[in-house]
Amino acid sequence: MLSAQERAHVTQVWDLIAGHEAPFGAELLLRLFTVYPSTKTYFKHLGDPLDEVQLLSHGQRVLEAVGVAVRHMDNLRAALSPLADLHAHVLRVDPTNFPLLIQCFQVVLASHLQGEYTVEMQAVWDKFLTALAVVLTEKYR
Ligand code: HEM
Fold first, then answer.
1. Nearby residues of 133 by Cβ (< 8 Å), 6 or more positions away
2. Where is each Globin domain found (predicted)?
3. What is the pLDDT of residues 78-92, one digit of tens each?
């Protein structure tokens, strides 16, 4: 898992996002659906064209869940258990979609935080988001 220093870096970046979950989350989803259109198949209810209000609302929920993960970095599995059940058993989201979301998340962070989003930050966030995705997809087995 993440070292104490890596955790501090994750929190440092999160502190810049906290309070802006809806716009960051909406941009994340917009990038995901645009760059990887196959991901839209899970979100038909968000409308075509996409409904801005719904995009903001779901984006906010996703980012708030990332915030929960940041606050429970040492116990991700327990903190995300209900969300893991939802994605595996109810939504049946194919696990191959998670790296696509991580890729878009990185672009959102880089484009907003620019110079503050150093190579080191990217590496740590990749590790953190991958750990999060592992927890959200491990109940498929
Ligand atoms: C629902 C988080 C990845 C598809 C949700 C919810 C959250 C969430 C918080 C709402 C749960 C609720 O209403 O109780 C996350 C996080 C992810 C992730 C943190 C990765 C880090 C994905 C991926 C897909 C996906 C990769 C598919 C491409 C969905 C769908 C819903 C959902 C279809 C239901 C939407 C709705 O009810 O309107 N997710 N998710 N999720 N997620 Fe994810």
1. 95, 98, 99, 101, 102
2. 1-141
3. 999 999 999 999 999
Query: What are the sequence ranges of the domains in the chain?
Result: 4-140
CATH 1.10.490.10 is the classification of domain 4-140? yes
pLDDT band at 141 (very low <50, low <70, confident <90, very high): low
Ligand 1, atom 8: closest residue by C-alpha: 62
8 alpha carbon – ligand 1 mean position (Å): 26
- Please compute the mean of the pLDDT values over residues 134-138 and round it to a whole number: 95
| Contact 18 CB / ligand 1 (< 6 Å) | no
- What pLDDT does residue 140 have? 77
Is-above-0.90 flag for pTM? Answer: yes
Residue closest by Cα to atom 42 of ligand 1 = 87
CA of 94 to the centre of ligand 1 (A): 12
Nearest protein CA to atom 3 of ligand 1, as residue: 98
